[in-house]
Amino acid sequence: MSSDRTDLAHLSPGGRLVPAAIFALSVSALAAALIAQYGFGLAPCQLCIWQRWPYAAAALFGFAAALGPFSRPARMTLVAATGLAFATGAGIAGYHAGVEYGWWAGLPGCSGDALSPDVSVDDLQAALSGQDRVVPCDEPAFVFAGLSMAGWNFVLSLLLTAGTFWALVTRRAG
Question: What residue intervals traverse the membrane (predicted)?
Fold first, then answer.
């Protein structure tokens, strides 16, 4: 009888709790970004948009692991993939925060510098008319407690990476 319980352990709610939490946290982070954009008018730069992709990937992996008909090892693999997505997000957010704080240069065309040598007359006319407005990556849209949104995303992504891998190491995920 005990072997039957062990065989069915992967169907227990606890085996799906971590993936469900990953899904919920990822969707919440994406919702916060969209609320900041559409609710508060904080236009995202290119790096801000890139920071959303790891959350979208983690949400998909978390959803699949929480509700999919996968074995425990497969669910743990999906949870590991979410950890890698969060780590990727931390890298993007850390890079973006460094650009905002002036620690290194940002992406070409992401600084909002309209007078760079690579800008054509058509680019200047489009910028003046409000078309194709480039949101600068080196100017934080919002700062709270000394950290920009990218800085807070870096902290959150690191915490989610650590939490995900802690769940894997202690075999609480999957």
Answer: 20-40, 52-70, 77-97, 150-169
